[in-house]
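Why do we bother with a discrete structure alphabet at all? Because it lets us treat a fold like text: something you can write down, compare, and reason about line by line. To make this less abstract, here is a complete entry for Glycosyl hydrolase. Read it the way you would read a sentence in a foreign language you are learning: slowly, and without expecting to understand everything at once.
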Amino acid sequence: MTSRPAAGSVWHGRASHAARSVTALFGRKLLFLPGTHLAAVAWNPGEPVQSGPAWLHALRRLASGSALAHPWHYWWQAHYVDCLVDTGRRELGSGATPAARFNGPGNPSAGQLASRLVTGIRLRNAFTFVNNYYDDMAWLAMATLRLDALAEETRKPGRRRNARVRKTLVLQFDAASTDDLGGGVFWSKKRDFKNTPATAPVALFYARTGQRAKAQSLLDWLDRTLFDLEQRLYLDGARLDAAGTVTVDRAVYTYNQGPVLGALLELGGEANLARAAELVDAVDRHLTVPAPGAGDAAPRTVLRCDGTGDGGLFTGILCRYLALAATDGRLPEPARATAARLVTDTAQAFWDGRRTLDAGTPAGSHPGRSVFSLHAAQPADQTYPQGAVVELSTQLQAWMTLEAAAAITGS
């Protein structure tokens, strides 16, 4: 009698498959520089395959300027770092040996690749980690914090460079956390809009680095200013115009709920944990759509997705923090079960809807790799049919979700 594989091992394999697919389709060195890594913002399966050695391809790209011609999405790369850290933690759970590496023993570990990626981000960002958007910088600061924790767990020294990254960026966060509008964090250097996308990840970063009073102050501002009492979800932001009038942007996005949830769990305490459980329930009630193939007899749901571009990351970010809620024993069991169901059902939909690349197609240089849908509720054959250009953000989203499912089932 053949036994069924444990759920944890199934999701481990699926998450590793997503890691291999994304790094194969999008990952590359920055120009021809050794020790660097970066992700292209899009993968075009129609691009002709060039012959010749890798250094010649890089030289051609440098000469044409194509390596720097694409739009620069700093925060996409920050989430790429986070995904690689997720993969690195699973490698650690498998023994952290070369044989456990997600892409084979002859390739870099996920942690090594993440470190090269941080180097690539600095070089591509004009030799600095400072950016015009405070939320972008917060995501990278948290990713490097997790990367150093991974290095410590693998008994390898953390990169002093990562500490310098955070030392530089925390000055930015302190400058953006002002009393204007009663608190909160500015979104950009324009300093006319304070929002959940910047305030929540900065609060989470403060909480994880021991600055608990600052973190709680930011959460308190979110509760006073941007918490919608009817939906029990967090609104997007508050804008201050030249006349001193405050206008609240009432849009509700999936990813805004994620880092708030993370900060609530990190700080803990009765009030924060009660709000975290409430937030999980609100996400389930307001931010889900029918699962693919779900009929009236089994009304399953998955988390809604927000398309391409920046929106292609949103649901993956939420899943990362729902996974923390699902495994946090301080939360009531119903909240943990809801968080786990939302993540695993959404991950299952992404997995079932993937499109595997065939060696016989124009994209046949990557046989066995997969393209994931930009919507969990639709298959990739519909959202990314053969020949379509695929955006990095949407593939990171599916990868994050699969990693979140692996974290829950393997805990």
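What the structure line is telling us, in plain words: The mean pLDDT is 91. Residues 1-53+284-411 form one domain.
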